[in-house]
Write a structure and sequence with these properties.
This protein is mostly beta strands and about 240 residues long. The protein folds into two domains: about 45 residues, no CATH class; about 120 residues, Jelly Rolls (Sandwich). It contains one helix and eleven strands, in the order αβββββββββββ. Strands 4, 6, 7, 8 and 10 form a five-stranded antiparallel sheet that branches. The radius of gyration is 37 Å and the shape is rod-shaped. About 5% of the residues have low confidence.
Amino acid sequence: MHGNESRGHFRSALAGALIGGLLTAALPALGAVAGDPLLLGRTNTINSRTTLSGSPATSLRVVNQAAGATALDLQVQPGSAPLAVNTSRRISRLNADYLDGRHAADLLRAAAARTANAPNVNGDVLTVEVVAPAAGLLIMEGSVDVLGVTRDVLNCALRLDGAQVAGTGRSIVVHDTTASGGTDNGSENCASGGGIAVTAGAHTVAFEVGALDAGTTGLGEASLWALFVPFDGNGAAPAG
């Protein structure tokens, strides 16, 4: 009799455990409540702020000993900032990959060239190529030293992708004659600069000389540089 009762109690307990387990499995996992401890190795969910406050040199340190792994991963919804601070003080060795949503390669592109002896012919003195990552403004400047033994009137200008940049044409007079019949200079410098809106892609900038009398006038030191800036003309970052 006692053996039958024991077996009956065991079967009842087993059935109760099975039913309880099924009911528990069917219920959703309950989130933590304020005051619960942090469970390591698990996802902790709570809709209240957790504040760690103290006065040591470092309040919280996270160390990841796996090679190539990060120590901290902050995940937010699109458009939300992943981090907030209460100071504008510079943080040593904290490198930013983007500035206002742009990579460093999207902000500035520069190219420059120089020569001690420019070609003594009409045409391009120097050329450079700039690859614009987006629409923006291309700022450029070129100059060349001009040496002459007789009067010569020549010009210089900047060209972009084969077309002269408006407003960059310059004219100079070398070895001019004064009112008394003397000469007031045997050398000059022809220089020009300007800016122009460009589209994304590769652009060739050239500094050219025209109307040069190569028999009496020679070219010397020359330089050319171009700088791309992402700017659409109204102070806003260009689209794209």
